[in-house]
Amino acid sequence: MATTTELDELETRATNDVSLSSSGLDRVIVAVIQRTRWHWTAMSDQYLSPESAIAVGLGYAALTRDGSPVFEENGKRHCDLMKVAQAEELALREPDRDWRIHLIAQRENRHYRRSGPGVWELYERGYGLS
User: Fold this and answer.
1) What string of DSSP letters covers 13-25?
2) DSSP character for 98?
3) Chain-centroid distance, C-alpha 26
4) How far is Cα 98 from Cα 110, in angstroms, rounded to an integer?
5) How far is it, in rounded angstroms, from Cα 77 to Cα 92?
6) Which pick of 60, 68, 90, 115 has the fewest CB atoms within 10 Å?
7) Crossing angle, helix 4-16 and helix 25-42, to 10 degrees?
8) Could you read off the pLDDT of 79-126 as tens digits, one per residue?
9) Cα separation values, 16 from 9, 10, 53, Å
10) What is the dihedral sign for C-alpha 81, 84, 90, 91?
11) Euclidean distance between CA atoms 94 and 31, whole angstroms
């Protein structure tokens, strides 16, 4: 998932790019960015979206299968992070296993369990590392 700053940069680039404005594509890009922002604010954290990264920055994030780590964030660059969609691909191969995603950040931790195809549901929330 892109950060707000990345969206700001994309919106500015789309607005200032003459080649986009001449075709009207700048308005389309800005509209998509604004709609994305609206959806992000409206989204509940009860479920993880397929585009979500399994990451928290400072803290611990992991995908586990039957309690054993399959993926851990470990300071990876944003482009090297696993997405929920990738976790889902792994889980589809072994659907009878217990698949979970753990996001333990400074101020909050959230734990998700795969409860069906493409459904990663929040089952526990805590106060995080602080």
Assistant:
1) HHHH-HHHHHHTH
2) -
3) 26
4) 17
5) 26
6) 68
7) 160
8) 678 999 999 999 999 999 999 999 999 889 999 999 999 999 999 999
9) 11, 10, 29
10) positive
11) 39
Phi, psi of 77 (to 5 degrees): -70, 155
From start to end of the chain, where are the E strands?
59-65, 68-72, 99-105, 109-116, 119-126
Contact 57, 104 (CB under 8 A): no
pLDDT digits (tens, 9 = 90+) for 11-24: 788 888 888 777 78
Burial label for 102, CB within 10 Å (0-12, 13-18, 19+), is buried
CA–CA separation, 85 vs 91, rounded Å? 10
